Structures are given as structure tokens and as C-alpha cells.
Amino acid sequence: MMKKEFFKSKLLIGLATLLAISLSIFIFNAIYQNELPKIVEEINNSAIGAIFTAIVTVFLLQGQTASEEDKERNVKVFEKKSELFNNFIEELWKVWEDRNISLEELNHLLKLVAKDIIPYAKPQSAKSILQSLNAIAVDTQNVNQNKTEIQAHLYAIINTLSKEIGLGGAIEHEVATELNKLENHILPYLNKKGYIHKINSLLQEKLDKTLTDFTVEDDILWWRVGGKDTGMWLRVGDTNNSGQIYLTFWSEFFSNRQYTPYRYAQKGESKDWIQGYKSSETFNYNLLRKGEELSSESVEKLVNEIVAFYQEPLDGISKTIDELIEECNPQKEV
């Protein structure tokens, strides 16, 4: 850029010098009444016209170059702006994926707004986005969060950003209504899947992967205990869709008669349960089954109860499940 400007300056100085010389010759010839030869006069007159044309051309090109540089700079700024705004929209959806926004997540979004949005957005757009985030912050602190309202504020932010980068589309009221209808069909399944995944992940983390072969059957959670040869499972769930959560160790007694002394019942649904089961009042299990709203705290509390149930001696037996398996399977590793 500096080299171009230097070249243009030198060129203009050279043209100005030539113009001064040609004008001097023209004035000299006028004063001394055509003392110069005719051919010299004609060449000089032509040179004056050519020099004027060259100077005008340089100025025009200089203006055109500046305009092109401004255009190129504006294109680069818009590309960066579009990239940052699209990234922010993606971040919004990541935060909202679990349909819950914490104050920590809001703080993260605020940092992104300050760093990536405000420097590129129009003042009114930045103000609108901050107002929506403030409204979400207020709603987040309420015990009963209005998820529809929070989502409406997120839609407003997305509309503002889309308008800024000229995407053309917008999540208007009718579109938002249809999105909410679709979400009501999908969200319960996603919630349920998310709760189950979180329970298993936390449990594996806390018990250092002691439990294996996690599976779900009829919404009941199962983990194999002590390896595949023990025939012992941990069962978490209710019975007959009652909603009451039971934590129990389970073994199919027809194939694993070594556990007969610790059998809870001779018949019925609990005939394969091991003595010492516990019930949990953490939440109604039907909420998980239906994918309805559960707090992270309640899910974590259930996991902690399962961990304690696994690690502590079973009621009425005074042995942990690992000790019981070792006793009943002396030749099998636990």
C-alpha cells in the first residue's frame, strides 16, 4: 500500500514537472512571437494536452483504487461479521440444547456478545440482544422457568442477527408456533434419552466403571455387577409404572441358585430380587419415563443414592454386594 502511494506521488511530480516545462515553452513562444520552429510548437502543444490527460487519468485511477480498496475491506469485514454471528447462533442452540440455561452459560454468552457481536452490530441491534439476554437471566432465576418465553427471547436474538447479515429469513410468530409444536413431539424423547445417559455417565464416573453392560428394557435401567459370570445385575426403576423408584440387585434364580439364601421373594415380580432393596423418593420415575422435566439436582441425587446402595452393606444381610458375590461364587473373580 505504501509503495503504491509512493509511486503515484513520484508519477504526479514527474508529470507536473513536464507540464511546467511545456507551459514555459508555450509562454516563451507567445512572448517572443513565434520564435520557435513550427514543429517544436506543435509538439509542445500536443505534449501539454497529453500531460493534462495523464494527470487527470492518474487522479481518476487513484479514486477508483481507493474505492476498490474500501469495497474489498467492506467485504472482508462482512465475511468476518457473518462468521461471528453464525457462530453465536450455533452457541445459542448448544446452550439451549438441554432446554435449560444456567447463569454460568449466560455469562459465557455475554462475553461472546461483548467480544464478537457489539463491535460489528448496529447499536440498536446490540441493545436488543442485551435486552433479550437480560430477560432470559430474570427468567432463569425463577423457580418455575417459562421455557416458552426463554425460547421466544432466543428467537428474537436470532432474528436480530439474521437481519444484521441480511439472511432474509426470520422466525416469525407462525413459524415459532410450528417449531414449538414439533418440539413438543420430539423433546420428551430427547429428555428421556438425556436423563438416562446422564445417570449412566455419572454412575460410571463415580464407581470407576465397576458396572458394565448397561442396558435399558421397558424403561428400567440395568447394569451387570461383578462380570458376566456372576449372574448379578443392578436394577433401577419402578414396578408396574407406579413411579416409585426401587434400587435392587437382581439375579435370575433358576440359573443362579447360589443366591437362594439371599432371595427376597419366592414368587411375584420381585422373586429375582436380592434382599436389602431400597426405595428412592428423589422423583417420580414416570417423569423420566415420559421425558418430562427433571432438575439436574434430582438426577444427581439419584446417582448418589445408587452409589451408596452399591458400596454400603445391604439391609438384613450386612454384606456389600461384592462381598455377597464373592461368598456365593468362590471360584469366580468379582
Average pLDDT taken over every residue: 83
Straight-line N-to-C gap: 75 Å
Rg calc: 39 Å
Strand order in the largest sheet: 1-2-3-4-5
Strand content: 5-15%
- State the shape: elongated
Number of helices: 9
User: How many strands, what sense, and barrel or not for the largest sheet?
Assistant: 5 strands, antiparallel
Strand element count: 5
Q: SS-based structural class?
A: alpha+beta
Helix content estimate: 55-70%
Which consecutive residue ranges, at least 5 long each, have pLDDT under 50?
none
In N-to-C order, the SSE pattern is HHHHHHEEEEEHHH
Written description of the protein model:
- The chain crosses the membrane at residues 12-31, 43-61.
- Keywords: Membrane, Transmembrane, Transmembrane helix.
- Among the domains are: 1-58; 208-328, no CATH class.
- It is 61% helix and 8% strand.
- The protein is built from nine helices and five strands.
- The protein has a five-stranded antiparallel beta sheet with strand order 1-2-3-4-5.
- A hairpin with a 6-residue loop joins strand 2 (220-225) and strand 3.
- Helix 2 (38-96) runs antiparallel to helix 5, helix 4 (123-140) packs antiparallel against helix 5 (147-164) and helix 6 (173-206) packs parallel to helix 8 (296-311).
- The longest helix is centred in the N-terminal third of the chain and has 59 residues, at 38-96.
- It is elongated.
- It starts with a helix and ends in a 6-residue tail after the last helix.
